[in-house]
Known about the structure:
- By secondary structure, this protein is α/β, with parallel strands linked by helices.
- The protein has 2 domains: about 1-90 and about 280-295, Rossmann fold (3-Layer(aba) Sandwich), CATH 3.40.50.720; about 90-270, NAD(P)-binding Rossmann-like Domain (Rossmann fold, 3-Layer(aba) Sandwich), CATH 3.40.50.
- It is built from 8 helices and 12 strands.
- A 7-stranded parallel beta sheet has the order 8-7-6-9-10-11-12, sandwiched between helices. A 5-stranded parallel beta sheet has the order 2-1-3-4-5, with helices on one face.
- Helix 4 (about 145-155) links the parallel strand 6 and strand 7 (about 160-165).
- Helix 1 (about 15-25) crosses helix 8 and helix 2 (about 90-110) crosses helix 4.
- The protein binds NADP nicotinamide-adenine-dinucleotide phosphate and glyoxylic acid.
Amino acid sequence: MINIYFAAGQALWPKYQDPLRAALQDAGIQASLSAECADPSQIDYIVFAPGGEVQDFTPFTRCKAVLNLWAGVERIVGNPTLTQPLCRMVDPAMTAGMVEWVVGHSLRHHLGMDRHIINPSHIWDPTCPPIAAERAMTVLGLGALGQACAAALQGIGFKVRGWSRTTKAVAGLETFHGPQGLQTALTGAEIVVLLLPKTTETENILNAESLAWPARGAVILNPGRGHLIDDFALLAALDSGAIGHATLDVFRVEPLPADHAFWAHPRVTVTPHVAAETRPTSAARVVVENIKRGESGLSFVHLVDRTRGY
Ligand code: NAP
Ligand code: GLV
């Protein structure tokens, strides 16, 4: 019997229990699935989420993989007790949600929608926005989410540049990589999207120096992680007009503290880490795909590289 321990927190268990059972059944896998664990040494797979029950993986001596329900792994990847393979979540429904968030917020700024939505003085201003082909966008991070967003933005017609750690050839996308490619990727960008993981290399990637590289008045969209931006440098860039607006979904401390300057800043939009939630039905299939692979001796998909940190 395969024993699966759902250690992603009691709050998620009611949402995931039925989709996981259905996915196991569809895959023809007979398993015991429980949110309780009497004997860690008998567990074959752990379904994990930050804030869940397991902090110490040492007693899970038989565990073949830890299957994270989140795309980001920064809250588990450095756990010194974790010796088992760690897989992150790449969920097609989560990707769809991220594409919608990024495209929606890009179009808000591209079209200048706020001018018409918030117009208490009833000003008739027929200034026409440029079309997308005249708007330079840069996506930092060309992984599962960054590439999907870049493709959707290109589909609308935006001029999109992308930046990643390693060289990437993506059809129709002008790509740059490594620390040496960052300035070129950002220079002149009018909308910058952050879809990088939180690692020691990406922390404060947008700082006082790099916030000066996009076009004056550029918009920053951050659905990646709060740590990617130096908050004080961003506030200074907003106040000086170097950056025109920041739409932020993720923060160094979540929930964003009530007294944080982002809440009150007129050119900051706060969304409460809702850009792309993992969706139980599709995510359950991804989890079960990895269990199936583990049982067949195949390599896991979406395996995290511990040394890279993502
Ligand atoms: P992914 O597939 O692992 O892609 C990460 C991308 O970042 C890759 O292109 C990688 O480059 C690049 N990268 C990593 N370190 C870099 C560095 N030092 N310099 C330049 N590029 C670097 O991750 P994903 O699935 O797209 O997710 C990205 C992040 O989105 C997650 O880690 C998470 O923080 C965030 N997220 C947020 C939400 C939300 O609701 N707000 C939801 C899901 C995910 P290579 O391609 O060269 O490896
Ligand atoms: C959400 O932020 C995730 O990493 O899945």
